Amino acid sequence: MAPESTPNHDCAFLDSVITDSRVAHAESVREQYATDASPHSGRMPDAVVWPGSTDEVAAVLAAANDRGVPVTPRSGGSGLEGNAIPSAGGIVLNTAEIEHVEVSPDDLQATVGAGVVYEDLNEQLASHGLRFAPGISSSDVATIGGMVATNASGFNAVRYGETRDHVRRLEVVTADGRVVECGSGVVKTSAGYSLKDVFVGSEGTLGVVTEVTLGLVGIPKHRRAALVTFPSRAEASRAVADAIGSALVPGAIEFIDTTALTVLNAYYDDISFEEQPTLLLELHANNSGIEEDLAFAKAICEDHGMRSWDPADEAELDDIWQARRDKYPASRAYHKEWDVALVGDVVVPISRYPEIVETVSQVSEELDLLTPCVGHAGDGNLHFTPLVDPDDEEMVERAHELNERVVRKAIDLGGSSTGEHGVGIGKRKFMTTEHGPAIELMRSIKETFDPNGILNPDKVLPDA
Ligand SMILES: Cc1cc2nc3c(=O)[nH]c(=O)nc-3n(C[C@H](O)[C@H](O)[C@H](O)COP(=O)(O)OP(=O)(O)OC[C@H]3O[C@@H](n4cnc5c(N)ncnc54)[C@H](O)[C@@H]3O)c2cc1C
What we know:
Blueprint: E1 23-24, H1 27-32, E2 47-49, H2 54-67, E3 71-74, E4 91-94, E5 101-104, E6 109-113, H3 118-126, E7 130-131, H4 144-150, H5 157-160, E8 167-173, E9 179-183, H6 195-199, E10 208-215, E11 217-218, E12 222-229, H7 233-245, E13 252-256, H8 258-267, E14 278-285, H9 290-303, E15 308-312, H10 314-325, H11 327-333, E16 339-340, E17 344-347, H12 353-366, E18 373-375, E19 381-384, E20 387-388, H13 393-412, H14 431-435, H15 438-449
Parallel strand pairs: 2-4, 3-4
Antiparallel strand pairs: 1-2, 5-6, 6-10, 7-11, 8-9, 8-10, 12-14, 12-15, 13-14, 13-18, 16-20, 17-19, 18-19
Helix pairs in contact: 7-9, 7-12, 8-11, 12-13
């Protein structure tokens, strides 16, 4: 929850730092930046700025730092853990208008402004036969700056890795307004501490990312996919653990539970899924071998009592992926008086995936909650969205208990409290359990990079 009352900050100084058209003090505008896409409570900023260049970002930060005014970086506002909520008020610094793209196809890389939207980037890259690969559900809103800041990933991480794996170089503005370059446009380097890796996933608490050089991959020549149903969620999740444990490297492998399929069927007039625990399996290849991999995957599914194997062609596949992306809005729309209480996001070692799937299901049953579940199963990631009546405090409380128990179980299983959405506000309380004494080193890093504590206060690190 955002703090209920924090002092307001006088942000009139911004008018002499950045041109009129790039700053707003009006309440109606500030209101739009009080929240993000998460169910966390919002907090009104005192001003919003949209710098158009790195120099403008630097000028705003230097002036805010001199005055001790908090600055919360923001881009698409699609965070699911309250990551971009300005908990301490002050300035929301929106990098959405830094939108340049320069592609170097021969080096398989692109240098892009922080505000470029993921889907727009991939549309531009497609003409070169290339793409930025992590594959996320919020592809039409999430920006490269936000993805770097949360180390986002999604469907395709099982084969291509998370955002971090593709970041070669960053341009970052530090809290005091210095512009620094971290990394370079090469595939490898051993030159000193990797500051870019410190900034990736730091959720705007250490610096503002203005430009990113990303490594790219080729668009695969061949795709094959199937929807596979199983007699139980346990068998479906064991099939995933077995497939990955047998060194199959799918392009994507998604788990969708029966409740999620019920929610999706209710959302659509024209699509209907069989309501059985399901895997959506997609294989990628440029050369031969894909049919053999498909047969291998099918054999593993058969070993786990597979009920049906429904191959999907390219056209059907796009619809199926759209449905998978629609799981969040479909969950929100399912019951007219209910809403999603929180978006669970845990990750465990792949061999423990069946246990975490069972935990969500058993605890939901025990707490009498309807909880659709989906997951980027191939990398051990599970999302769960308990549905509640927001006016029923006791029911909301039960949803938070579910989250608490599942997160602690994931950490016990050797996993993490968040696979991809970041810590934001919601996961701060788990950081000490997850990191132990390392949390003190993280505090030292924060103090070094942001001694006045102006950058995205009350996020990531727990209270001292
Ligand atoms: C329907 C839906 C589906 C989603 N699916 C996925 C998914 O599959 N995978 C996934 O990883 N996430 C997913 N998300 C969460 C979200 O889209 C990601 O966290 C995304 O990376 C956020 O990008 P953004 O541009 O919207 O960032 P914002 O929400 O604006 O900000 C997110 C964080 O990044 C910081 N930040 C933003 N820009 C900068 C910058 N330029 N410099 C420094 N810090 C910055 C903010 O301070 C904040 O801490 C989903 C969200 C929704 C609503």
